[in-house]
Amino acid sequence: MSKIIEIKSRQVFDSRGFPTVQSDVILEDGSIGSSIVPSGASTGSYEACELRDSNPKYLNKSVLNAVENVNHSINNHLKGKNSLEQEKIDQLLIDLDGTNNKSKLGANSILSVSIANCKAAAKSQKKEIFHYLSRDHNYKLPFPLMNIINGGAHANNSLNIQEFMIRPDGANSFSECMQMAFLTIQNLKKLLESKKMNTSVGDEGGFAPNLNSDEDAIDLILDSIEKSGFKPGQDISLCLDVASNELYDGKEYSIITGKKINPAELIDYYASLANKYPIKSIEDPIFEDDWKSWSDLNNKIGNITQIVGDDLFVTNHERLNKGIQESSANAILIKLNQIGTVSETLKTIYLAQTNNFKTIISHRSGDTEDTFISDLAIATKSNQIKTGSLARSERVAKYNRLLKIEEILNNPGMSKL
Ligand code: PGA
Ligand code: ZN
Predict the structure, then answer these.
(1) Of 168, 274, 164, whose CA–CA distance to 213 is shortest?
(2) Does the predicted TM-score (pTM) go above 0.90?
(3) Is 226 designated active site?
């Protein structure tokens, strides 16, 4: 038994400078686990509720009520409980909240405690977090999906697609992934400079140049892959996050500048992109409620391209179940704060893997120095992680943690794609 003696929370700030929740779980044996929760910008409407105050001093962004909920009701409820029983702790949090989207206490307050508890328990067992969380201690490193050009809701530019990512498919180790990404990103920067384009970065550390079209962004990335001496599609492939909720007006999509297209035309557009370019993954290609078009797209190109549900599934067990039945996608993006506890996140990951869905552990566009997702990716043998570009310390911290884990595990090799 590792008894919880106190839970303390405070308001801190995320990478966008917005308030967020940090909580510490303190155990009787002196172990302390601390966690800071991230926050999205292009959120799905079925995500668990992020509690924010109406407080003009913080432009209604403060989380002082969520902090108060941790310091009082959650602290009182969990004091004396066994930190090693993560599922029970998470169930107590779910029951104390009592709503189906965690809107009473806030998913931000609940998740901060759930993760902090997991970290405290690992510490009290003198184990690495990934080791404490793993079911079979059989480890592989995940491939990084690195968002190197930012558009959509994450940047102030003209790109419609939110994320243009590279994945170093040809790498044999995580360190090699980083070397390949480093070179490609530096060459992309040089290319942008040579075209007198802006090289400042967006929320996830990718460049945010003012290009004429999404295809121009793809061509620039392909150029920088080749300039680095790699073969596009073989050594490094392209992955997109369309975040199409943001482009949908209830009927049509504004993905091609100056033109609106319907769902059938959109599916054809993706098929032509996947034929023309080495695109191996497309996330949120379709609006979150159009299940039929998701299945149509997955049937059409799911055999050559990974189709990833983010806003569609929101890390939610029931929505994933529907997606499995309807063959809506073949991969799921996993974001802890979409659902709100470690145990529910694990349940969704294992449901996905049992049904041959790939699992991609993800950061949020507003993130922090917390590196829990790196350990989660290793513990669950998720074969991909999405945590931004090789810039901005809140992103790089996750990569640095994975480099350290690779060393701790004596280079166990990469997961299968
Ligand atoms: P978000 O973006 O964190 O702003 O939701 C990330 C994503 O859509 O994958
Ligand atoms: Zn997404």
Answers:
(1) 164
(2) yes
(3) no
